[in-house]
Amino acid sequence: xxGPLPRWxxxxxxxxxxxxxxxxxxxxxxxxxxxxxxxALRVMIEGAFVYPGSLxxxxxxxxxxxxxxxxxxxxxxxxxxxxxxxxxxxxxxxxVMAVCLTLDPYLPGxxxxxxAILGAALFGGAWAFLPGFxxxxxxxxxxxxxxxxxxxxxxxxxxxxxxxxxxxxxxTPQTRNIAPDATIPTVxxxxxxxxxxxxxxxxNLSILLAAAAAFGVWVLIxxxxxxxxxxxxxxxxxxxxxxxxxxxxxxxxxxxxxxALAGLMATNAVLGAQEKLVNNFTAGxxxxxxxxxxxxxxxxxxxxxxxxxxxxxxxxxxxxxxxxSTLDRNMVLVLQGLIILFSGALAHMLDGPLSRLFAPxxxxxxxx
Amino acid sequence: MTEPSTAGAVHPDPAIExxxxxxxxxxxxxxxxxxxSVRAGAVHGIIGENGAGKSTLVSILSGHYQADSGxxxxxxxxxKLASSADAIRLGIGMVHQHFMLxxxxxxxxxxxxxxxxxxxxxASRKEVLSRLAEIGEKYGLTVDPQRVVETLPxxxxxxxxxxxxxxxxxxxxxxxxxxxxxxxDETDRLFESLAVLKARGVTILLITHKLREIMAVTxxxxxxxxxxxxxxxxxxxxxxxxLAELMVGRTxxxxxxxxxxxxxxxxxxxxxxxxxxxxxxxxLSDVSFTLHAGEIVGVAGVAGNGQSELLNILAGLDVPTAxxxxxxxxxxxxxxxxxxRAMRRLGVAHVPEDRRREGxxxxxxxxxxxxxxxxxxxxxxxxxxxxxxxxxxxCQSLMDRFDVRPANPRLAASGFSGGNQQKLVIAREHxxxxxxxxxxxxxxxxxxxxxxxxxRELLALRDAGCAILLVSVELxxxxxxSDRVIGMNGGRIVGTLAAAEADxxxxxxxxAGIGGTAEIAAGAQELSA
Lengths: 368, 529
Hints:
The complex is a heterodimer of chains A (368) and B (529).
Chain A: H1 7-33, H2 37-50, H3 54-77, H4 85-103, H5 109-138, H6 142-162, H7 187-193, H8 206-223, H9 225-235, H10 237-242, H11 247-274, H12 285-295, H13 300-323, H14 329-345, H15 351-366
Chain B: E1 16-25, E2 28-38, E3 43-48, H1 54-61, E4 69-74, E5 77-79, H2 84-89, E6 92-95, H3 107-115, H4 121-139, H5 154-167, E7 172-176, H6 184-199, E8 203-208, H7 211-217, E9 220-225, E10 228-234, H8 240-248, E11 266-276, E12 282-292, E13 296-300, H9 307-314, E14 322-327, E15 330-333, H10 340-345, E16 348-351, H11 355-359, H12 366-369, H13 388-401, H14 418-431, E17 436-440, H15 448-463, E18 467-472, H16 475-481, E19 484-489, E20 492-498, H17 504-511, H18 517-528
Parallel strand pairs in B: 3-8, 3-9, 6-7, 7-8, 13-18, 13-19, 16-17, 17-18
Antiparallel strand pairs in B: 1-2, 1-4, 4-5, 9-10, 11-12, 11-14, 14-15, 19-20
Helix pairs in contact in B: 3-4, 3-5, 13-14, 14-15, 17-18
């Protein structure tokens, strides 16, 4: 048997090769449709990074993915598969609005914003609490419960947006706008205030919160006693029991943290970009977070990089539909699907050949 | 296919001849130019430590693996064993360490799995029944064909395995660690069966790490070490000491508990401990005993007779359904349960039976494993953070002190040998300075060198005043270390023996459920009669 791969190869080389393979196959699909794959790739890259405002969009989407990807990763380290990020983010949006709609007429923005961020995390965490509790006490599998909770969350959101929370005097299912001083400032606003040219984009300072969350997750998982217990539980439940980890409360706590991270996506999408709650604002970001976490191998650094890639794909895909009549965003879905296939389902396909490649080099220092 | 050789007529060629067999898995050379010759009609033992390559060799012989190079001859003819089907066709039957039986099938259904070729089962059933009668007559191996396998005692389940192997043609029978799950009595009966099989001309290859078994039943013995065949001997011409040294490659001194010591004050008192599982089965019934400072109490029993449950209750992993135990002034019972953390704080350390699942987290670095269960010790000035440097330094000193090799705290536990893994677990629990140490199967899957070390450490810990409860299925280990021996059967304590009166026979009787001093005396008399 070959030994395990070095950590850097596991986090860096393998995902890169898997993505390259996905692009290669997707290129084949584009060629079959009758377009030049390299030209299409060029459109996507320019659409994601070069056109005015495109980089802002790419980073905005990436911010969403960081939150939902981290949510999946934290649960994954405890061997819990939280696929309810979509619903937890939606309820996180409700948390933002619960704070903003009640407080923004009375409090200054600097106070409302932190409370709204807290609301997003609390609501998202609360939405994951129940699946976690059911898993811990009744053994109801979180994969089943979290995905069902997505539907319930979507239902609640529709009901609230068409009824109690709808902006008076209109028929679109959305709330009133948050008071301007209680929203998270966008990057282009700040840039313009400082006297720079900047194209408009939804990119806002939530990206800093996402970076902080990524670092925080790293500290939590690898540097705290809590994270140690969480990983112990994930690797071996008997060992966790032996070590005295209170397994049920650990499961609940992990799910709550995971849900809170997913809920934080709402600070970016609702508090930072849309400045109001609209129906279906999560737009599948919660689900794509699973792919992001898989590709990032549940490590914050990997997740940030995977988020940038998926953000670029999301934004570049929009440009495809402008440039081609034959290609549109669905092409990106194909590409995303292939990336998930290669980095998720076939993630370990290349472990064998690669570790053989690394084996001789690593063997030298360990031989006496 | 030639007819199986009949009684007495011994084939002139060796039954098995392996020449230059090599097999490599990745970077591990499991078998390195191994040659072996097994006389027809003999009982041939292969002995070696865990990881010496015995199982790989046998897997090659049973067609499960293919050798990278080398030749296999059976009764003088060169053969290719490309699959287990080939091996079965050539009359090689294999009895695995872990039974390959369908537990809720009857005996006959299990046997039909091997042979059923006709489109309908009635014909196969008839055929197997007649073969079964034949085997019963020829080898004296009988078993009720209608019994469901899981209702049979372990010894009889193994007999079904042997019959299954003989159905293959019965020329060569390979047994891989066959006595691990048997009582001493069942072991004796197995060896009687092997003698009959041998008398009927079956060639037997016995894989084991127990020297006593080699001496008891084999005609020839081969010793493997690190993938190589290092020696071959006529069993009559060798002894346990020589074989042990050949296995390990150096002089071995078997540790024994020579110094009988007066026991100190009681530190753990259990009374009426019982555990009934969710299915309503009594796993542990009314277990009472006292553990004193500075003594090792061995719990002898065949696996699955309540010893694991006892350990788990005392470690805080399970809550007794009835009864209680008191340690360090705290009484634990169903009404006042304690978790493993609470037990550790009371000074009860635990070396669990299943090192790989419980005692260690295999993908974790050794430094992380060295604080499993003792996280508080890894905290420094900032209690919400792990001090990795301190963890590594502490692990390094544990590794140096307990000779864990390689002594690198950054390596994952999965990369260490069983012996080194176990040394770290014991070092960790030892490091906590326990008043009570619960030890489960301390040397399971551990090489002889490490066994010696671990036994010495346990005795040293006892001498320092620790009370040790030792659970082991290795009777030799119990006898070598214990100041007192408790025999368990069916979840009950059958009897207790002081070290001076504990011998294989008496403890074996306790393990079989025959308890009470009078009964033991009677049983012993019966055996010697």
